[in-house]
Design a protein that fits this description.
This protein has 211 residues and is α+β, with helices and mostly antiparallel strands. 36% of the residues lie in helices and 21% in strands. It contains seven helices and seven strands; from the N terminus they run H-H-E-E-E-E-H-E-H-E-H-E-H-H. The radius of gyration is 20 Å and the shape is elongated. The two termini are 15 Å apart.
Length: 211
Amino acid sequence: MTTSVASPEAPLSTAAVPGRPTAAINTGRVADLIAQLLVELGENPAREGLIGTPDRVAAWWNAFLCPDDAETATCFTESHLSGQLVIVSGMSVWSLCEHHMLPMNLQVTAGYVPDGEVVGLSKFGRIARRFAGRLQVQERFTRQVSEHLIGVIGHEDVAVAVRGVHLCMSMRGVRMEEARTTTVHTGGCFGTDLVLSQQFLTVAAGQWGAW
């Protein structure tokens, strides 16, 4: 669901950040380690069904942790949008919990108040996917998406809400399949204007529904 769009665009940072590899991934070495893991789990990597599995797993890790850093946001001049709230929701990304290396599905809603420019809509999803493609925690992910959007639009009138399902909680530990984690990061007018903040949270909660 989209309720408008907005703002400028800065290239995604290539600096070392938590969860991102600091050197090229040696997929051959990773494949060897996966094969060793299968052996330690009592499996035979050479049996039918597992042949090629270590290579496939290594290729996936490489693709997941090394996304293209060349993506930049496209902004468009719109000078008559004073006071408009723009919300992009319905964005679903997969990440990996860095504590247990198990998947988490994150439903993302982002909002901002345009000031002379709007951001291309597809860029919101690309930004969310970029920060999800690493070993993560939901709290950090929410802040990173928000801070990157602030850099893109050039001011702090940004809000990001994320609702996550964590397999580290639903398939291990307490094994609560219905558990959901919600994180919200707000800045600028979203922190001072209660009506604006409530409008954003209402849209976010409505998008999630009973999910």
